[in-house]
Every structure is written in C-alpha cells, then in structure tokens.
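Field log, afternoon session.

UNIT: design team B
ACTIVITY: writing a sequence onto a fixed backbone
BACKBONE:
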C-alpha cells in the first residue's frame, strides 16, 4: 500500500472495536500489522499527524548558475512570464532546460517578484450610491423630471 489515509485507519479502528484481532483487521484493511498497531496505540488519524515542514531541497536547483541572467531579464522587463523566460533559456542553452522545469522557474519568478519586483498597484473600490448624490446636491427623492415640469408650470404625463 502506497499511502495510508484516514479512511484506512477509521476502518481499522472500527474493525478493532467490533472485536476483530489486530492481525485480521490489518489484513482486511491492507495495512501492515506493525503499522496498524502504531495507529491503534497512537489513536490519531494520519491527517492529524504533526509533520515538520521540509526546508531543504531534494534536487539541485537547475537555475542556480543562470539566475543572474534571469534576474537581469526580469529587471529590464518585470512583466515577463516564466514560460517566456524558459523558452529564452532553452534557445540560449539548447538541451539544458526541459519543459518539465517550468513550474520550478515559476516558483523562482514568483519569489523574485515578491521580494525584488515592482510594487503592485493598489486599487480602492468605489461604491456609487445614487441616493447620496441627491441628498448631497439638495435634491429630493422625487424624480427630477417631475420637479422640472412642476417648476416650469408644465404638466407631466401620468398626473
């Protein structure tokens, strides 16, 4: 079994509560006997496990030695997308960079924009409320077309 999920452990615990032996319950759920015993004594689901965050790299950074060139490109044109930069690197260094490395470059570019990129433009939403405009100009809630007709001494349709 590749990964033990909460469903496996819930099934295991239910079978154990129903009186099945640990060995039989482990076999029925497809979990190793020792792993089943560990979860049974721990009384915690896999999703509730405390795992330390990984802060180390599992592979060497493929863009480490060309990052200064990438940074120069980003400094001159900060709007460049990672896909464009990857295509540029593939043309400059044929056979060195694969399409599968795009996500890694996207992470690097995202991090660069957050730390060294241009400031983001701030937008403040505006709410237009017509009733406040009438009050601010001294108008009333009556329709403006009726007031203008009344002021001129004309009759409006529908009176």
């Amino acid at each position: 079994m590749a990964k033990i999920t909460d469903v496996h452990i819930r099934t295991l615990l239910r079978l154990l509560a129903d009186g099945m032996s640990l060995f039989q319950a482990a076999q029925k759920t497809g979990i190793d006997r020792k792993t089943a015993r560990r979860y049974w004594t721990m009384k915690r689901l896999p999703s509730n496990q405390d795992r330390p965050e990984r802060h180390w790299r599992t592979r060497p950074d493929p863009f480490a030695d060309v990052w200064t060139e990438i940074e120069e490109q980003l400094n001159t044109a900060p709007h460049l997308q990672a896909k464009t930069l990857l295509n540029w690197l593939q043309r400059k260094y044929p056979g060195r960079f694969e399409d599968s490395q795009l996500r890694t470059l996207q992470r690097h570019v995202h991090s660069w924009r957050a730390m060294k990129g241009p400031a983001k433009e701030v937008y403040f939403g505006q709410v237009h409320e017509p009733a406040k405009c009438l009050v601010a100009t001294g108008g009333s809630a009556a329709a403006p077309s009726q007031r203008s007709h009344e002021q001129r001494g004309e009759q409006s349709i529908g009176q």
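LOG NOTE: DSSP finds eight helices and no strands in the chain.
NEXT ACTIVITY: expression trials, pending approval
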